[in-house]
Design brief:
- The structure is a single chain.
- The protein is globular.
- With about 120 residues, it is mainly α.
- The protein has four helices and no strands.
- α3 crosses α4 (about 85-115).
- It has helices at about 20-30, 35-45, 50-75, 85-115.
- The relative contact order is 0.11.
- Helices cover about 70% and strands about 0% of the residues.
């Protein structure tokens, strides 16, 4: 189990109790595995055909949920901040979610164009 130390070897990793490479790699893999699933959920529930007010509401709700999850994860030592503040993430999610949606829209258009011509 990973314990939060005062000085991790990498800014985004905490050192594990034994400190060996295998422990750090497995801990990193465990932490990064939640990101693609979260992105898929955001993309699937985004209100594509609704008004812009509902889209803004969705982005704000997603921001709140992701920020709450991150706050809980840091309190339970799931991951460690090294000079990062929770409100940096809250501001970043306001940019990241629309970028995810734009990426999905661009990808879908490119796939449709490739299949049609």
């Amino acid at each position: 189990m990973c314990a939060r130390n005062k000085s991790p070897p990498h800014p985004f990793l905490c050192t594990c109790e034994r400190g060996d490479l295998f422990s750090v790699a497995s801990e990193t893999r465990r932490r990064l595995s939640a990101t693609p699933a979260g992105n898929a959920i955001i993309i699937n529930f985004y209100p594509y055909k609704r008004t812009w007010i509902s889209k803004v509401g969705f982005v704000l709700a997603t921001d709140a949920i992701c920020s709450l999850y991150e706050a809980l994860a840091t309190r339970s030592t799931f991951f460690y901040y090294n000079g990062w503040r929770w409100w940096y993430s809250a501001l970043a999610y306001l940019v990241i979610v629309p970028i995810l949606v734009m990426n999905r829209n661009i990808t879908r258009k490119l796939v449709e164009r490739g299949q049609g011509g």
